[in-house]
Amino acid sequence: MKLESNIPGGPIAEKWTRHKFELKLVNPANKRKFTVIVVGTGLAGASAAASLGELGYNVKSFCIQDSPRRAHSIAAQGGINAAHNYPNDGDSIYRLFYDTVKGGDFRAREANVHRLAECSNLIINHCVAQGVPFGREYGGLLDNRSFGGAQVSRTFYARGQTGQQLLLGAYQSMMRQVAKGSVKMFTRREMMDIVLVGGKARGIVVRNLISGELECHEADAVCLATGGYGNVFYLSTNAKGSNVGAAWRAHKKGALFANPCYTQIHPTCIPVTGDHQSKLTLMSESLRNDGRVWVPRKAGDVRRPSDIPEAERYYYLEEKYPSFGNLVPRDVASRNAKMVCDNGLGVGSSKRAVFLDFGDAIKRIGENAVSAKYGNLFQMYEKITDENPYKTPMRIYPASHYTMGGLWVDYNLQSTIPGLFVLGEANFSDHGANRLGASALMQGLADGYFVIPYTIGGYFAGNKLDKINSAQAEFVDAAKSSKALIDRLLSIKGKKTVTEFHREMGHIMWENVGMGRNKAGLEKAISALPGLRDEFWKNVNVLGENASFNQNLENAMRVADFLEFGELLAKDALYREESCGGHFREEHQTPDNEAKRDDDTFCHVAAWEWKGENKPHELNKEELQFENVHLMTRSYK
Amino acid sequence: MSEENMNLTIKAWRQKNSQARGNFETVKLSNVSPDMSFLEMLDVMNEQLMKEGKEAFAFDHDCREGICGMCSLVINGMPHGPDNLVTTCQLHMRKFNDGDTIVIEPWRSAAFPVIRDCAVNRSAFDRIIQAGGFVSINTGNAPPASTLPVPKANADRAFDAAACIGCGACVAACKNASAMLFVSAKVSHLSYLPQGKPEAQKRVLAMVEQMDKEGFGNCTNLFECEAACPKGISVEFIAKMNREYMCASALYAERVYSADA
Q1: Are residues B43 and A140, on separate chains, in Cβ contact within 8 Å?
Q2: Which pLDDT tens digit goes with each residue over A118-176?
Q3: Contact check, Cβ <8 Å, A161/B58
Q4: Angle, CA of A456, A460 and A464, to the nearest 5°
Q5: pTM over the 0.90 mark
Q6: Last residue of a domain, which of A384, A401, A418?
Q7: Superfamily assignment of B6-115 in CATH?
Q8: A602-623: burial string, b at 16+ Cβ within 10 Å, e else
Q9: First and final C-alpha spacing in chain A
Q10: Chain B residues within an 8 Å CB radius of A447
Q11: Which of A209, A279, A548 best tests the B interface by mutation, with the highest count of B CBs <10 A?
């Protein structure tokens, strides 16, 4: 398949402006004749639904939760980047663009990243106007803080709940459209399948999670904003319900999946305590502004942290990376934490943890100032661990967090299925191999508020769409195969629970396809997963019936998708014989253990095409061009 | 079993669907670690039930880090259980003792009908927000973010109110099933900010009207809502909403607050 990225011509700073002009428009009076389905109500989905509704399109919005206010964007703590340069410290759209391309280790698409940087300031303006209570200075103007991978302060924040406040802003805008009738909301619905008519995405089949009924919804275009696949590792910072299902079902209908091996392991999470653990809790990266990361210099040092003198503490990030110190990008911080723990320097009962110490910050600015900045995070840490981080250093360890890979999209955010658009974390385009902190919120909102409203119009104006209805064969067939899947799961009546399978799979993925990857491990995962999948389909125990609120069944379907998807992730990681960003192949590292890219062979997007059950995926490549930020070795030393 | 681990008796509310009659089901659990979160304890319970061929106990949850507002259990008579300022998902088993009996019920309010077991329907909250819990701004309309300074104290106060997670514990805790804390949090958040001012009066009237329509009771100043709130939303916001409501009602006759009124 030839992948057309549809990147407009011209200088990087003019591409988006030119493209917006060149896109065909839909007359205001005609917009109401088009129906758009938006699946997912996180930042990308809610902002898209609100903006498209404001423009006059008929929007149908779907989410798995009981309310569109709950998607996992809400848990983002630290902040959102923008290039306003309010601190007067040298920021610009170009610098944000530059930092993001470099932070992504030269595996993102330049044109998309520049557009993202251009939209960043508009997002802040819009969110302030919505009433998002960003942190302010005493003079009443907006405050900024710094984040990993940048040497300017460009992160806007709302205490430690930035994602919550931004999502509520988008949710409220969307509720306003619901009241006006331009957005129709369907909660507690899970997308089962995407429906193609004449090769174009024209609708979806959803399962009503309360009644079990399969509902068919037709539309003129479908937007997926269904988030990432971090739960493929079982333990992650994602919400329990986060899943790859919608993206995976679209993939099986023809949407290519790009760079699944680009997964982000976040450096500052609360360590695992036992087998009962159901998820991992993130501590915002903003903590690295004031917290110092260290481990004892001596292996097996079990003294209390306060008893270990300064000279016997190994501040490994500050020593190895003097110019960025504790604020190196996430992939670098995570890998170093793993390395010191592998060398036996880990702390806590599991020895898989490092200290994040606020002692110096409290001495410097006082406990009150620390509390004003991070109070809610400190409280959360104390509730979970029963330790007071004002008195004793936090213990942290990396955990699966964000996934940069996703469905392949062109510059218009359109997948390889015409009429299927993919927004936010669910697509692959803007973060390359590593996402910098505070840029996920930026991307979700840029896609929803400022990109899709233009590009979807171009699609409608440039394509002839036949009249269809949800009673026609394509819908009936899709609903039938969804029903067959459900019936099959309910008929197995095996011995193992869904969670047992998920946990087992997560263990395979984390050990072999996690922070450090090598050929032998990846091959081991690739050979283990099909067996586990077979066992799942023979021995899983899904109780109850379809026609009820059946969380066990919901979960079984999600795990079934992960079991297929995990194999593609491992295969992509095996294919990519280089290290870049969050993808670290142990065979490919520099003498001082930094990631070693191979730009001659792998400066491309690997987009995988589904060829049918039990057939190998086909690889398609999109070559990446770096015309503005020139390829170089990333250094944060 | 480690020394600290606990044996517990769980009495959980089971109800097949919104029409069915419910009842408590008793489950014995052993070897519960004090490091487990409450929901992880329920995961263990569900695994045990399913191994016995019984359907899992249904409860809402998602983020499991205290921010999405989805989890919602009344534990030993207290919404979100005995710990202060946490949601059920952040409540840990170290707050309980070996041999305890723990009673688990759904949010109880006519406006929150039970879907199954302890999962309830809170769409009434969405409809209250639809009535006016927003600023009418279309994408693309916004002025530059720095044009309007907001005194830090007001921004902070607005944030205090905006921290509401919409879980509904305030309703569950109130003997009148009043939603005043939830509604006042949104009314206050937006009215403390200059961006929310133009619609403040219209907003408070519309949201209160919808709140009444949904069947929530009125406030009788018992402050159980504040005590139950996992985010510490203050009842002072209810007082603020009452003042806003009074002013708006008085000015309503003049119809000065909105061009389309």
Answers
A1: no
A2: 999 999 999 999 999 999 999 999 999 888 788 999 999 998 899 999 999 999 999 99
A3: no
A4: 150
A5: yes
A6: A401
A7: Beta-grasp domain (3.10.20.30)
A8: bbbbbbbbbeeeeeebeebebe
A9: 41
A10: none
A11: A279
**pLDDT for the residue numbered A273:** 87
Region of residue B147 (phi > 0: left; psi between -120 and 50: alpha; otherwise: beta): alpha
Question: Which of A115, A189, A202, A330 does the annotation list as catalytic?
Answer: A330
ipTM summary value: 0.97
| Domain membership flag for residue A336 | yes
Residue at token pair 């209810």: B238
Whether A585 and A579 have beta carbons less than 8 Å apart is answered as yes
Q: Which three-class secondary structure string do you get for B91-116?
A: CEHHHCCCCCEEEEECCCCCCCCEEE
Assigned token pair, A383: 């509730």
Secondary structure element (H or E) that encloses residue A264, with its range: strand A263-269
Say yes or no for a CB contact (<8 Å) between A130 and B61. Answer: no
Question: Which residues of A, range 214-253, sit inside 8 Å of B by Cβ?
Answer: 237, 239-241
The tokens describing B246, both together, are 């009074």
| Total tally of structural domains belonging to chain A | 2
State the burial class of residue A471 (Cβ atoms within 10 Å of its Cβ: 0-12, 13-18, 19+).
exposed
pLDDT tens track for B22-69: 999 999 999 999 999 999 999 999 999 999 999 999 999 999 999 999
CA distance A399 to A332: 13
For CATH 1.10.1060.10, list the domain ranges present in chain B: 123-252
Amino acid identity of residue A558, one-letter, is: R
CATH class as words, domain B123-252: mainly alpha
Q: Is residue A130 a part of any domain in this protein?
A: no
